[in-house]
Amino acid sequence: MAQMHGKASKYLIRLDKLNRVSAYILLVGTIGSAIIGFIRNYKINTTLIGLVIFIVLWSPIFWFAYRRYKKYLNESDKYHRGRKGEGAIWYELQKLNNQFHVYQDAVIKGNQWNIDFIVLGPTGLFVVEVKSHTGNVTYANNTLLLNGKPFEKDFLSQIKQQETGLSEFLKSQLGKDIKIQPVIVFSHKWATMHFGMNPVDHSGVYVVQKRLLNKLINSTQQVFSLNDISKIGEQLEKLVV
Fold first, then answer.
1. Residue 79 clears pLDDT 70, i.e. is over it
2. How far apart (Å, rounded) are the C-alpha atoms in residues 82 and 152?
């Protein structure tokens, strides 16, 4: 079993809860305001014309509130899926042997993003970005596509920034360049792709399904000695405190 470091993403947990709480506050607040408004003008609102006016005035408010409510819930669901996806990959990486160290939710000071997982072991150093989308993933014109259309973000650029950020951090701490392998992994079984064990572009980014992740990590010939792993691991510990 791999040696696990760090905790689940605080970013995903916070935004999941924030959007869900915002949805319920909006729902309760809108309904409560409507009830109070109705009671304050009870005599007028119980007449036919008063009731019609009340409905006409409040219908657009309810429509707007409902749309915002659904948006908050959809955002919450997106972050919740992200949490589940990272959890699934955490369990998968745990299956690596005990020569490997897995660092979850690593944050490099000065950067606006986190790294879902860093994997360090005798076969190398990997940055792993987790995606929970479903559908057919392809690659064309330097872009990853989902069902023929670009993703909402440029995931290849994202993982390359993480690779560069980690490389610069380690060089500043250890005084030398260390090769890092960027990997994007799709956690859901309904995400399909046909890249196999080959990088999708010239920069060497691998895009794999969960079932191929550990095979990819184990496929490289020995790169690091135990001493290398110890020195690099000492610096990576600073990123998951």
1. no
2. 14
Contact assessment for residue 118 and residue 165, using Cβ atoms and an 8 Å cutoff: no
Give the tokens for residue 89.
């990959």
Question: HEC profile for 175-205?
Answer: CCCCCCEEEEEECCCCEECCCCCCECCCCCC
**SS3 of 97-129:** CCCCEEEEEEECCCCCCEEEEEEEECCEEEEEE
Q: Which two tokens stand for residue 11?
A: 């970013």
Residues 188-204: b if buried by 16+ CB within 10 A, e if exposed? beebebebeeeebeeee
Return the closest-CA partner of residue 211 out of 79, 117, 114, 91. 91
| Residue 75 φ then ψ, to 5° | -65, -45
pLDDT digits (tens, 9 = 90+) for 157-182: 999 999 999 999 999 999 999 999 99
| pLDDT more than 90, % of the chain | 47
Query: How many CB atoms lie under 10 A from the CB of residue 238?
Result: 14
Judge: domain 98-239, CATH 1.10.3470. Answer: no
| 53, burial (CB in 10 Å: exposed 0-12, middle 13-18, buried 19+) | middle
Percent of the chain clearing pLDDT 70 (strictly above): 93
